[in-house]
Specification:
Number of domains: 1
Bound molecules: protoporphyrin IX containing FE
CATH topology: Cytochrome p450
Largest sheet: 5 strands, mixed
Number of helices: 16
CATH architecture: Orthogonal Bundle
Helix content: 40-55%
CATH class: Mainly Alpha
Radius of gyration: 22 Å
Shape: globular
Number of strands: 13
Mean pLDDT: 83
Distance between the termini: 54 Å
Order of helices and strands: EHHEEHHEHHEHHHHHHHHEEEEHHEEEE
Strand order of the largest sheet: 2-3-9-6-4
């Protein structure tokens, strides 16, 4: 068994969290090159951590033997902030909650792109994602209860559903806690009085204690899910903007769209990855991982593993019907294995619905045509400067906008 390449450095001084946070992609790329290995070690969150950038090591971590050796800390990027669930308790929760995510709960395709002005697509899609989660999880619909919808949206943006005090952030923190308390009051009221939809089903589940349902609802309506959906939809519209070749085969749905969306999540996974802690000495990709080490899989890197994905940086939807056919499980945008995302089917339904709607009804292009599309990757991947686009309805005469498709 070999020693992990790299160096975990000394406590505190050797910590690389800030460097990672500033630019995770350059961080991992430099080290892969330096150590000539897609698995290496570094100090993150002041803990020696194994970085996983290959498909094989990701599969070993999330689906293999190592999975059972780890205490799972990273329940979901969104859940991670608040809950540390492991073992049996997590399995029970998964069983209860999975039944609620069968994916048949989507009818929304209202005409959400109405203006003929250039739109900031990320904001439009974030609003759409917020409408989805509040409608689905809380029965609060923007068109029926605009004030309540607006209030909850604001509270979700600033609330902090944690009880940990953050140093140097006292006033912001108490505002965030106030917001959380107000959200909790709204959620509890819903759980007591609403018998319909998701809320109604959730309160009838055999959950471990009385606060469990409200805690979960708080997580499900957190701003991160709309942001992750907006991230994928923004990347989708960007990848296809000015690319009539990819947009044209509208008749080939749904298979073609499925491949396009796989390629979108491969190149622009909304979350950077997930984290585990080894609870005993283990082996990963042939390397020794000591007890207490962290292990973080970097989806951006795993999805560009040249062993599996040829021309890894190129947008090639056709790879999913060719060389990579049947290899969807090599992606980890929604995690993988027994602790993968329970919302992934729901996301799939929602994304396809939204994308089919866009493709059927609109052409679009960047407006202005030249924009800085450099991505940032934390907390959710998207262009640092949110791009603006013009949408033209297909059943109307083309606008006189100067689209360069
Ligand atoms: C585009 C949207 C989403 C993305 C990209 C996403 C991503 C992920 C990822 C990467 C994981 C695994 C984390 C790990 O390996 O540690 C995960 C787990 C999880 N996700 Fe999501 N998620 C999304 C939406 C949702 C939705 C809509 C829900 C449900 C309301 C949800 C609930 C969960 C839960 C409960 C887990 C933890 C499962 C467990 O630990 O057993 N996610 N998600």
């Amino acid at each position: 068994m070999s020693k992990l390449p790299g160096n975990a450095g000394v406590s505190v001084l050797g910590d690389k969290s800030l460097e990672f946070y500033r630019d995770p992609v350059s961080f991992y790329r430099e080290r892969i090159e330096k150590h000539r290995s897609r698995v290496f070690q570094c100090r993150l969150l002041n803990r020696p951590t194994t970085f996983i950038c290959s498909v094989q090591a990701m599969r070993e971590l999330l689906c293999g033997r190592l999975c059972s050796l780890c205490i799972i800390v990273y329940v979901c990027v969104l859940v991670n902030l608040y809950l540390h669930v492991s073992g049996e308790e997590a399995c029970l929760l998964r069983l209860s909650l999975t039944s609620l995510f069968s994916g048949s709960c989507l009818e929304s395709s209202s005409d959400y792109i109405t203006s003929r002005q250039p739109e900031c697509v990320y904001s439009v899609f974030k609003r759409l994602g917020t409408e989805l989660v509040l409608g689905l999880f809380l029965n609060v619909r923007a068109e029926e209860q605009p004030e309540l919808f607006q209030e909850i949206t604001q509270l979700c943006l600033i609330s902090a559903p944690v009880n940990v005090k953050v140093p140097l952030w006292s006033s912001g923190f108490s505002t965030a806690l106030d917001a959380r308390d107000k959200l909790m009051d709204i959620i509890k009221d819903k759980l007591e009085n609403d018998t319909q939809g998701f809320v109604g089903t959730l309160r009838s589940l055999p959950l471990p204690d009385s606060s469990c349902a409200s805690q979960h609802l708080l997580l499900f309506i957190s701003a991160l899910i709309p942001k992750a959906l907006a991230s994928l939809l923004t990347s989708f519209t960007l990848a296809l903007s000015g690319n009539e070749q990819v947009r044209k085969p509208r008749q080939k749905y749904p298979d073609y769209l499925h491949r396009v969306l796989l390629e979108v999540q491969r190149l622009w996974p909304p979350f950077i990855g997930g984290r585990r802690i080894a609870d005993k000495d283990s082996t990963l990709a042939g390397f020794h991982v000591p007890k207490g080490y962290g292990a973080i899989y970097i989806s951006h890197a795993v999805h560009r593993d040249p062993e599996v994905f040829q021309q890894p940086d190129n947008f090639l939807p056709e790879r999913w019907s060719g060389r990579n056919a049947g290899q969807e499980h090599f992606l980890c945008s929604f995690g993988s294995g027994p602790r993968s995302c329970i919302g992934s089917k729901l996301n799939d339904v929602f994304l396809k619905e939204a994308c089919v709607y866009l493709l059927k009804h609109y052409d679009w292009c960047l407006d202005p045509p030249s924009q800085d599309l450099e991505y940032k990757w934390l907390p959710v991947s998207r262009p640092t400067n949110p791009p603006t686009m013009s949408f033209t309805r297909l059943d109307q005469t083309r606008s006189d906008k100067n689209c360069t498709s």
